[in-house]
Amino acid sequence: MPSPKKKNEILFFALRNNKLRIGLSIVLFFVVLTFVGPLLTQYKPDEFVGPPSSPPSSKFWFGTTTFGEDVFTQLVYGLGSTFMVGLIGGGLGTLLGVLIGFTAGYRGGLVDELLNMLTNIVLSVPALVVLLIIAAYLQVRSLFTESIFIAFFAWPWAARAIRAQTFSLRIRDFVDLARLSGMSSLKIIFTEIAPNMMSYLLLVFILQFGGAILTAATLDFIGLGPTNAISLGLMMNMAVLWGALILGTWWWFIPPGVAITAIVGALYVTNVGLDEVFNPKLREM
Amino acid sequence: MLKLDNISKVYKVGTFGGKELHAVSNVSFDVGDREVVSLIGESGSGKSTIGKMILRLISISAGTIVCNGVDVSTLKGAGLKEYYRSVQGVFQDPFSTYNPIFKADRIFTIIRDEFFPRISAPEWNDKLEKSLTDVGLNPEHVLDKFPHQLSGGQLQRFLLARALLLDVKFLVADEIISMLDASTRIDVLNLLADLKSRGLSILFITHDLSLAHYISERAVILYRGCVAEVGATEKIFGNPLHPYTQMLMASVPRLDKKWGQVEVELKAKQSGLTGGCVYEERCPVADTGCARDRPTLVEAECDHFVACIRYKDK
Amino acid sequence: MSLQVKKLTVYYQTLRWVVRALEDATLTVADGEIMGLAGESGCGKSTLCNSLILLKPPMRLVRGSVTLDGEELPIGDMERMNEFRFKRISVIPQYAMNAMNPTRKIGKMTKELLESRKVDWKATLPELKRRLDLVKLSHDVLNMYPIELSGGMKQRMVMVLSTLTDPSLLIADEITSALDVSSQKAVAEMLVAFRSQGCCKSVIVITHDISILYQIANSIMIMYAGQLAEKASTEVIIHSPRHPYTKLLISSLPTVGVKYSERHLKGIPGSPPLLLNPPVGCRFRERCPVAFEKCIEEPPFVEIEKGHFVACWKEPAKNA
Amino acid sequence: MTCFRVGGDVRQYFGRKLLIYILTFFIAVTVDWLIPRFMPGNPIDIMISRAGLRGSAVKTMYDYYTQLFGLNLPIWQQYLNFWSALLRGDLGISIFLFPTPVADVLMGAVPYDLALLLPAILLSWWAGNHFGAFAARSKWLDNTLLPVGYILTATPYMWLGILLAWLFCIVWRVFPLAGGYSFDLRPDLSLTFVWSLVSHWFLPFVSLFIVGFGGWAIGMRNMIIYELEADYSHYLEALGAPRKLIRKYAFNNAVLPQITGLALQLGVVVAGALATEVVFAYPGIGYLILQAIHNQDYFLLQGCFLFVVIGVLLANFIIDVAYVLVDPRTRIGMQGGG
User: Fold this and answer.
1) For A220, which of A234, C36, D156, D160 could close a Cys bridge (C-beta 3.0–4.6 Å)?
2) What is the structure's pLDDT at D233?
3) Would you place residue A280 in the very low, low, confident or very high pLDDT band (cuts 50, 70, 90)?
4) What's the gap in Å between the CA of A246 and the closest CA on chain D?
5) Which string of b and e fits D276-288 if b means at least 16 CB within 10 Å?
6) Residue A5 banded pLDDT, cuts 50, 70, 90
7) Which pLDDT does position C90 carry in this prediction?
8) How much is the average pLDDT of B271-294?
9) What φ, ψ does residue B204 adopt, rounded to 5°?
10) Which stretches of chain C drop beneath a pLDDT of 50?
């Protein structure tokens, strides 16, 4: 069944795929909230502005913490750092994954075997525990260092996926034809193989982004988050540490959890939607 | 033109390359100028591996490939690129030979960037249009289209036009028409044969005997990486010597003879060769004499003749 | 009795477009007949046969009826059709090489399949073993996994499996295309042996390789772009076809005797029409050398001689 | 059970797998040894500053500790000692529970961890697979039940823990909030003690179970759709086999990659368990790690790290062995059959 030009066909299905629409709208909502939020509130995240543990009211939309800090402000600033970790951690993880995945997939032979072994080793080491140790020793921890450590342990997932995809593309004849046209291997990777994988790289990045956010939240929750910034994980940690449960101040720990679950959930749903758009076999489902 | 001297290809398989798989073992044959040689073999016979070795897409484990006096197996970088000016390949699956997300005619722009960087646009355009018409394509209908908007036949002709643009001397055609429909297949085959008249020599790799017979002057029969039989196509098809080739000739489905007939003919030819009695093979009472000389009709009794050495003339 | 198909029309319905893959197919297959079904890719031969046994989305039955041995086949209704599948009508699929569950022993899978269709496994076992000998497969193949068999062996195993309950109609979909020349001949001859041993009453052999049909088929049906073009006995189709498309198709086949230097064979210019919105009337019109204004109407698939059907205005019907 | 033909290749396959795991363990231990020695801040200074000593006492205590922990020896000597101690099972002495060796502290926490992790992982794996297979039955089910799966798998482990804790412990007071068992009881085999154990265990188990469950359901849904589209399913359909049989085969084949998935996900699940234990103050290794961090007890921290790594690697190896036993394709593929 020949189809019209590839480009608008993908657009045709993209606009109709409701998984994609719902997922993207939720993510966009939180992105907007990250930029607009700080303008809406005149407080700072760690500023004591109101009566401690007061329930949500017109003045403090999400109520205040045991120290009287405004939960909404903390949430909005926390969103910023969460997205930051997602971007840096997820982006770096994907980048590392792409580099290792490509070389392993394209070169094959011994290089592939070694890189594959490295991937499996880093994969089988429980990433979070190592992160704990490293973070525990670092007295001063910034968002940036946390993202780098997260990326360092997230890349194997990306590398595995990209290696498999590169391998399936490498044995295609158009790579041989390119070699017959005298193109160098590097040029082949970037002009022939990579463009084919753009859709795939996007999917991998989305998963890495979501994964980085979850790992960061867990780290912050255990108290090893950034020392100089507020994050959703840190909010939950403080809530549990200072007895939000016993005091019943539910408005302190519910919003950050909802935010993380919504963002990561929406990312996964977007990922599935995109997957359906890009590969027709799933489209019929 | 191209001489294969005892080439072999060994793959390492199993974990840590434990076991060795001999895909091709000391194959030697040569392809002269303006000659079409067909390389015939079933799947797994290593015919595509040989094709890929000639095109230097995979390394050669042993032996040498000499093209116009130059040992190809050691060429690197610029030398290899120069080699590709005179030797090119066409592959089997048109839809895997084109990068799906680019327009089909991108293969020409790659050629221009790599081999004719300083050619002027108008000069290149009419060189391109000339080679497209030479392969029976109308430039307006086929240029600026995605691969999935063109038929298999058109895509394969694109590859031939690409070879014409480089005016190559040697073409490796690896099963180029097996994915095409019967009606369009024959035109591409005729086109391939026409290229011969333009001074091109072709290695036609196929598993289909009737195609090989149709197009090639010499044929090489390959079985599990070794050459079973080489020679002029009529000789090999007319009088197959190697038992494998005989089996192939007996099994290929023909449009003129049924399998049964072909078998009987082959048997007759064999026993005919030995000059003995034709029924000798299946005769329950045959003895050594029967296989040696052909018995003539003798009159065993009045008005009753028989051709069997057991009976003497009355 | 035999297979009667009347005006069978099946379209592929997907989100964005409708492909009119099969248009008004009317044909009969007598008992004991091996009918070859040939044509270029996209001519609808697979659609015709798949609709007979497994008509499920995206395929949609538009109209037409099918009777097998006098009984109407409910091809439109997936559930009711289950009763007929495997017992009355069976298929050797195009993908026979990986048609068996890779993680199940062949014997266990066969047992479970038969029992799920209420067929007594113990009673069938001796017959199964007899047929394994017929196709030269050793009995301990039942204790092996499909991965342990070669391509040809898997093909023969699926052949035995599909005909285990002696269906009255067997559809063999491109069973020889993926095989080498030697095993191709063996499998083709086994199919004929199966029919003559009564493992199935009649067979439809789908293939794009007409020379295989010449070897084993009693009659050949040629299809083009979703329409039936011509049907006749094998000799007539090969040596004296009447439909212009069949003539051109047969003449473009390089048999072993032909050499380029002696005779240039000619292909058919152009390519088959897209079945999104196929041309009105005879779909071979644009490529047909003898097309004339009458071809705008769809030519009926009519019997011009005993057992010789053609769909072309140039061939006047016997009684016209 | 199929007879297990151990061919040469199978041993080579396991040899290679074992090699990777041993290499991983070696690297993990080396990383674990490196961290305290090269990270900024010296554990001894921190310990002394916490003890609030002054003047000469600082010097003597510093020498005593350095000598005790063998930090004054040359680096490679320390490394060898570390390995020899490790092989003897001596993981050094905990700082904040000073005299008790790390190994004993860990031994106290491990039973709780196993009781929590094993049932949570295996049950969520089993239930998730069946739920995923069920969700793939029809389009309506797929569109309603699947988003639930995505929400669950996106939920941070600890947040679900907090929610459950808040709902069941505070609002409805059904379950106790913290600890392994209520403080007024002494561990004995009486019914009350066992009941208290179970009620403390239940909420962490449920939160781990639910989050894991979502992930497996999605994985299985994708895999089973892939298997239902496979050729052998079409063939069975063409032969009129009942839906039940086709689904059974598809499920059995779809479960196999989920087994390798289990090995890969182990690290993530263990991390989740640590966070959940912190929420419920459940006395497993996670809670120990939290205390170690708060009290800067590096040696306990390293001990916990080693235990988790060994546990995960061991589990991975067991799962690899199980996979070869269950999937005939790999087993026979390795013996060069077919």
Assistant:
1) A234
2) 93
3) low
4) 7
5) bbbbbbbbbbbbb
6) very low
7) 92
8) 70
9) -100, 105
10) 319-320
Q: For residue range B92-118, what is the model confidence (pLDDT) as tens digits?
A: 888 888 888 888 888 898 888 888 888
The alpha carbon of residue A259 is apart from the nearest alpha carbon of chain D, in Å, by: 10
pLDDT digits (tens, 9 = 90+) for A202-228: 888 998 999 899 888 888 888 777 877
In C18-125, the DSSP E strands lie at 18-29, 34-38, 59-68, 71-72, 89-92
For residue D35, the one-letter residue type is: I
State the smallest CA–CA distance between residue A182 and chain B in angstroms: 5
* Alpha carbon of A17: minimum distance to chain B alpha carbons (Å): 22
Q: Which amino acid is at A69?
A: E
Give me the pLDDT at residue A282, please: 52
Q: What is the largest CA-CA distance in chain B?
A: 94
Q: Is B151 within 8 Å of B137 (Cβ atoms)? A: no
- Binning pLDDT at 50, 70 and 90, where does residue D247 land? very high
Distance CA A112, CA A101 (A): 9
Angle at alpha carbon of residue D255, lines to D1 and C108, rounded to 5°: 40
* DSSP structure string for chain B: -EEEEEEEEEEEESGGG-EEEEEEEEEEEEE-TT-EEEEEE-TTSSHHHHHHHHTTSS--SEEEEEETTEEGGG--HHHHHHHHHHEEEE-S-HHHHS-TTS-TTHHHHHHHHHH-TT--HHHHHHHHHHHHHHTT--HHHHSS--GGGS-HHHHHHHHHHHHHHTT-SEEEEESTTTTS-HHHHHHHHHHHHHHHHTT-EEEEEES-HHHHHHH-SEEEEEETTEEEEEEEHHHHHHS--SHHHHHHHHHS--SSS-HHHHHHHHHHHHHHHHTS-TTGGG-TT--HHHHHSPPPPEEEETTEEE--TTS---
Mean pLDDT computed over D215-242 = 90
Bridging pattern class, strands C219-224 and C227-233: antiparallel
Q: pLDDT by residue (tens digit) across A33-75?
A: 888 888 887 777 777 877 887 888 887 788 888 888 888 888 8
Q: How confident is the model at residue A3 (pLDDT cuts 50, 70, 90)?
A: very low
Q: Please count the residue pairs, one from chain A and one from chain C, whose beta carbons lie less than 8 angstroms apart.
A: 14
Whether the CB-CB separation of A29 and A279 falls below 8 Å is answered with: no
Q: Is C270 left (phi over 0), alpha (psi -120 to 50) or beta?
A: left
Nearest CA in chain B to D16: B15
Q: Which residue type sits at A191? A: T
Q: What pLDDT, on the 0 to 100 scale, is given for residue D234?
A: 92
**Across the interface, do C99 and D235 touch by the CB < 8 Å criterion?**
yes
Tokens 């290809």 belong to B9
Instruction: Decide if A231 contacts A213 (C-beta within 8 A).
Output: no
Cα angle vertex D6, ends D2, D12, to 5°? 135
Task: Give A132: exposed, middle or buried? Use CB within 10 Å, 0-12, 13-18, 19+.
Answer: buried
Task: Note the ipTM here.
Answer: 0.83
Q: What angle do CA D182, D185, D187 make, to 5 degrees?
A: 105
Inspect the interface and report whether the beta carbons of B16 and D12 lie closer than 8 Å. Answer: yes
As a whole number, the mean pLDDT across chain D is 80
Q: Which pLDDT score is estimated for A2?
A: 38
Per-residue model confidence as pLDDT tens digits over C75-97:
888 888 888 899 999 999 988 88
Size of interface A-D (CB pairs under 8 A): 166
Nearest C-alpha in B relative to D336: B14
pLDDT at res. D4:
45
Structural tokens at position C138: 């050793």
Asked if B210 and C256 come within 8 Å (Cβ–Cβ), the reply is yes
Strands (E), C69-195: 71-72, 89-92, 169-173
What local confidence, expressed as pLDDT, does residue B241 receive? 83
Residue the block writes with tokens 């909030």: D177
Structure tokens belonging to residue A91: 């982006």
Residue in A closest to D138 by C-alpha: A285
